[in-house]
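Continuing the batch. This is chain 6 of the set; chains 1 through 5 are on the previous pages. Same settings as before, nothing changed between runs. Recording input and output for traceability.
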Amino acid sequence: MATEANPKIGAVMVVGGGIAGMQAALDTANAGYKVYLVEQDISLGGVMAQLDKTFPTNDCSTCMLSPRLIEVAMHPDIEIITLAQIEALEGEPGNFTVTLRQTPRYIDIDKCSACGACADVCPVELPSIFDEWRPVRPS
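Output for chain 6:
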C-alpha cells in the first residue's frame, strides 16, 4: 500500500478480464494503485471460464478462477468495467486519458440480483457468446 514516504498517485487500467488480467489487476491494486479492469465481454474470466480442465496439470478451471474472481470483486481499489472497448487513447506514457465505449446492458445493475427472472419473460432470444453462439434456450 502507499505510505507517506512513498505516496502512489494516479491509476492503472488493465485491459482484458481473463485470468491474467485479473491477476495483473490484483497485483497492481495490492501495490497501492487504483485499478480499472476493463473487459469487452459481459463478465470476467475469459476463455478459462469456459474450460473444464487446464493443460498440462488437468486442474479444475473453476477451482482456479473462482477465488480470483471473488478477490477482484471484493478489492476496494479495483473497479470492474465490463461490456467496454477502448475508443480513444490520448497523452504520453505516465500521463494519458482513455475514452471507453460501453455497450448498454438494458438493465439497472443496482437493482439486478442475477436471479434470471427477467430472462424467463424476455420476448427476445439471442445466441450466447459465452456458449459459442449457441442459443441459450432451445427453440
